Amino acid sequence: MAASPKRVKKVELGNANWIALLARCIDSIGNDAFPGKLVEALKSVADFDYSVSFAYHQNEKPLCLYNTFSHANRAVFVDDYIKGPYLLDPFFKACGRKVDAGLYRLQDVAPDRFYQSEYYHSYYVLTGLIEEICYAFYFPHGVSVVISLMRSDKSRFTAREFKLLKSVSPIVVSLSQAHWEGIHNRFESEPGEMGAVDNHVLIEETVSALFGSRITPREAQVVALVLEGHSSEAIAKSLGISVGTVRIHRRNVYGKLRISSQQELFSIFFQEIKTVRK
Q1: Using CA atoms, how far apart are residues 8 and 95, in angstroms rounded to an integer?
Q2: Please, what is the average pLDDT of the chain?
Q3: 10 Å Cβ neighbour count for 79?
Q4: Cα 142-144-148 angle, rounded to 5 deg
Q5: Which of these, 9, 53, 4, lies nearest to 163 by C-alpha position?
Q6: Are 45 and 9 in contact (CB under 8 A)?
Q7: Which residues belong to CATH 3.30.450.80 in the chain?
Q8: Which residues, at least 6 apart from 101, have a Cβ–Cβ distance to it below 8 Å?
Q9: Which of 34, 80, 100, 197 has the most C-beta neighbours closer than 10 Å?
């Protein structure tokens, strides 16, 4: 088996090269070159394969602010994502919870069974990523932005690399907020305050809209949590019911929808929401 390519940090924070890269970022604030300059600066700290930036506002489809994907990869990472799977993205949901601005690994914000969820197996693995870390931060009018740094080979971000990238979080956030200060104007609806729409409630409402009167409001709650990647134990704790009751709800939902697995549940959700959000 071929060895993974060795990734080498190219600059020391604070040296002349790093300062020059930051100066290019500052000079490009307000024009289309900024995202690329920011990614260039971050890659000099720790290498990665792809980067994508999304802006979120309440129940509107996300805006892709920048990406480094090929045309083929963009179809999975961006085009399919904004049609519905973003609702189950742990980073999107973390922004809805208003986690502190900064850098996070996926496992820092994901539900307890995320890596066993059908979102992970049926959508996320299609990206081919071995690891994704994200800067999350906020703007006025209820807008949040994430900047993802992604690796697609067998080399994860080391503890040292993550620490270095995390140390520049204040710079990334400050420059990005200056560049995208009017981002709320790019969304269609009247901007509201952050937290006006709870992301979990949004998923419940989406589930209810997709499956109509076939399931009850309580079953919609359970389905939303299942899709997000929560275990039956976590769902029971969240809803204040027993694990046995959760399993009964799941069994009832499967019967009403004429399916037999979580994989089929996700498939229905994904296909129907893509149709709704064309």
Answers
A1: 31
A2: 86
A3: 11
A4: 170
A5: 9
A6: yes
A7: 16-186
A8: 135, 136, 137, 138, 169, 173
A9: 34
CB atoms within 10 A of CB 186: 13
- How many angstroms separate the CA atoms of 48 and 155, rounded? 10
196-238, pLDDT tens digit by residue?
A: 445 566 777 778 888 878 889 899 889 888 888 888 898 999 8
Contact 267, 123 (CB under 8 A): no
Q: Is 5 helix (H, G, I), strand (E, B) or coil?
A: coil
> Which residues have CB under 8 Å from 226's CB, separation 6+?
117, 235, 250, 262, 265
pLDDT tens track for 102-143: 999 999 999 888 888 888 887 888 888 999 999 999 999 999
Residue type for position 264: E
Domain with CATH 1.10.10.10 in the chain: 199-276
Q: How far apart are CA 124 and CA 35, in angstroms?
A: 24
Structure-model confidence comparison of residues 17 and 197, the more confident one: 17
- Please tell me the least confidently modeled range out of 48-62, 107-121, 200-214, 245-259: 200-214
CATH of the domain spanning 199-276, picked from 2.60.120.430, 3.60.150.10, 1.10.10.10, 1.10.3720.10: 1.10.10.10
Supply the Cα-derived Rg of the chain in whole angstroms: 20
E strand segments, the chain: 50-57, 63-67, 102-105, 131-139, 143-151
Instruction: Report the alpha-carbon distance of residue 72 to residue 70 in Å, rounded.
Output: 5
In sequence order, what DSSP letters do the residues of 181-231 get, joined into one string?
TTGGGGSSSPP--TTSS-HHHHHHHHHHHHHGGGS-HHHHHHHHHHHHT--
| Residues 16-186, CATH architecture | 2-Layer Sandwich (3.30)
